[in-house]
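Memo to structure team: turn this sequence into structure tokens by end of day. - J.P.
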Amino acid sequence: MEKATRLSSSLLCAPLGTAVAVRPTPEMLAAAGDSAAQALLAAEPEAVAAYDHVPVRAAAAVFTMDTASEVFMLHSAKVGEEPSPGQGGLH
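Reply from structure team:
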């Protein structure tokens, strides 16, 4: 039980992080080479990413990274029109 308690308290102290996708620069798109995703991003000016021929207009995630125990935990990810990392879930 002591080991589990240590791990739990360690994770509670892990810094909380957020990530939000931003549109690649023209230089990044040019360097990406020819692909379906690159063509879709070039054709969709509001897209920040593309997956399986589907443009993504917004994406965000909330995570913690405990460097002491080398544990990365993804708490929520949202892909859609207006990401709100605190709302959780994969949409």
